[in-house]
Amino acid sequence: MEIIKREIIDINKRKFPEEICxxxxxxxxxxxxxxxxxxxxxxxxxxxxxxxxxxxxxxxxKDLSGFSHIYCIFFFDMVKLPVPLQSKPFLVNEKKGVFxxxxxxxxNPIGLSILEILDINQNIISVKNxxxxxxxxxxxxxxxASQYDNIKSTKIGWLKGKIKKRVS
Amino acid sequence: MEIIKREIIDINKRKFPEEICxxxxxxxxxxxxxxxxxxxxxxxxxxxxxxxxxxxxxxxxKDLSGFSHIYCIFFFDMVKLPVPLQSKPFLVNEKKGVFxxxxxxxxNPIGLSILEILDINQNIISVKNxxxxxxxxxxxxxxxASQYDNIKSTKIGWLKGKIKKRVS
Lengths: 168, 168
What we know:
Two copies of one chain form a homodimer.
Chain A: E1 20-22, E2 26-29, E3 48-53, E4 69-75, E5 86-87, E6 96-97, E7 110-121, E8 124-128, E9 136-143, H1 146-149
Antiparallel strand pairs in A: 2-3, 2-9, 3-8, 4-7, 4-9, 5-6, 7-8
């Protein structure tokens, strides 16, 4: 990308932030009206939903339609802090550190789902593989590229042998 | 994970947030002291770095060491808002929407890198594939699982044919 001076802070004025604040760029509408019954991973969901990108950000969608999948970064707005730093994931009956599981109950309740793009019409992105509560605030969307994002051989620790079949 | 009542807001009091604020859970130290020369993707970097998880969050690392890779979600703290909604990515000389590229210059400057875990010692995670500026604030860490996160066949729009070889 272009690095434009006015878009970068003065490195001499750089200060480690105590708090970092964002504004939602959109909202996702899904069939999941409560926390019960939401698929635990997007890869295990065939459910469809629609992301509404707020009008002021629509120009940011240019050429996204050529991609089949996106990383959808969102805010688990139902989570009340503080959360325990260890809890039981769905798949095993033993406490794990929050950074070793994907629970929404995280110190920073940030969600990450890989969603398939079905259609983009103006500021509405129709998506598949939804595992997100209805009316969840969206923080960012990035294009997914298997060439970058597929790690061929991974070790998955406690998850090994616990993963159920993916739907897509 | 367990859903504990006290950790969930009352759904009747649920209100769409205007602003969402987080506190860094840690900081990453890397050899990249300026924005010039940072690899454009973690998959194109063999560079090593260390993530310092702040002491109050160390319990959250339990059992992460069994995983080979993490999603590292961080804050591009050098970005000064507002940013243009379209800009030229490194690989082509044509403006694309910010949501169709991975520029740090995003309405919400949230970064996402897939890093290989080399070692975890107390609150220090040694990582590889670093494409992040030194002393960048870390927002979240999630375990990467190819079983969840590898999408076999993807369309990558404007990126097609533009991707250089990955280092790992």
